[in-house]
Amino acid sequence: MPVLPVLVLVGVLIVCVAGGTGATWLPLLAAGPALAAATNGPRGVLCVGLLAAVTGAALGIAHEVPPRELAAMLSAVLAVAAASGLASALRGRRERVLAAVRSVAEAAQHALLQPVPETVGPFQVAVRYSAAAAEARIGGDLYALVPTPHGIRLIVGDVRGKGLPAVGTAALVLGVFREAAYDEPDLLAVVGRIERSLARNLGPDDFVTAVVAGHRRSGQLEIVNCGHAPPLLISASGEVRALESGHPSPPLGLRALSGQAPRLQRLPFAVGEQLLLHTDGVTEARDHARAFYPLAEGVARHVCDEPARTLTALHDELLAHVGGRLHDDAALLLLRKTADEPVPVPSRASAL
């Protein structure tokens, strides 16, 4: 039996008996089944409704309420109980449907955004992803990390638009990236494969901003920024700087319109340094005063030798900045180099 609705009935009973108010408070008995509909199933609601009707009948007879008024009051209580039972049944059905949809969304997320291992060769890796629609679990932001014979390859991107079309485009980009990253020795060739696939499948106004990065055995970091927010390089001492490209490249899917080819940026990546890739859902998150979240300052405050702990602190601070709920998808991928050693090459099946 639901506790709160029963307490309401007991309260009405006490007021009517102790206060000697007669039938004045009897209509409040209908609040019992109405409250039960919010938390209980139809059976619980009907039990509360019957209890309210019996209580009302007993109080009405004890206070000598005219039969016509008592019948009207009991009819109202039973009608509210019936309506509340129906509402409870519909609520339970919606909850079951939502649970099924969320389970499908979780399966889709695991298939689309495959889990990234905490350690890949001489690197520690951490990822945090938040969809703006919490019930959906997935959105238009994307990320992936693939160990290959050419070193590790990673991508973080943001699809223009929202909803299922954005998820479909993200799935296309990730599928092509995972295949090309393993096959192509040149990082620009990987970007070219993605560009050609998007040119065949996207509409004229659609595009994807992305950062594609790789680390060869030579110890150099390679970055191709296609219209995306610049990644942050964190030195071993904790200094943070944005890796602005001297030759910005157009977003993926717009090369034919711009006529510009992507450029490869190379820089050293030493032991203890970290690379943070992110989407604009992080840097464009605003607080109540419409101020953007200062990502570089947040990284400087929370950076440590454990990427997972760093991203947890950043994510918590980001949610606090926006008041608890993001209005855009947000992805963070942090890579930390721990040693100078070759990256082990997995089998092709495990890489894909």
Sheet with most strands: 6 strands, antiparallel
Alpha carbon gap, first and last residue: 53 Å
- Structural class by helix and strand composition: alpha+beta
Strand line-up in the sheet with most strands: 1-2-11-10-7-8
Put simply, the count of helices is: 11
- Gyration radius over CA: 30 Å
Strand content: 15-25%
Outline type = elongated
What would the average pLDDT be, to the nearest integer?
84
Low-confidence stretches: none
The level of helicity is 40-55%
The count of β-strands is: 11
SSE run: HHHHEEEEHHEEEEHEEHHHEH
Structure description:
The chain has eleven helices and eleven strands. The chain has helices spanning 3-19, 31-39, 42-62, 67-112, 163-183, 187-201, 255-258, 280-283, 295-302, 307-322, 348-351, and strands spanning 119-120, 123-130, 141-148, 151-159, 208-215, 220-226, 232-234, 240-242, 265-268, 274-278, 330-337. The strands form two sheets. Strands 1-2-11-10-7-8 form a six-stranded antiparallel sheet. A five-stranded antiparallel sheet has the order 3-4-5-6-9, with helices on one face. β7 (232-234) and β8 form a beta hairpin. The longest helix has 46 residues, at 67-112. The two termini are 53 Å apart.
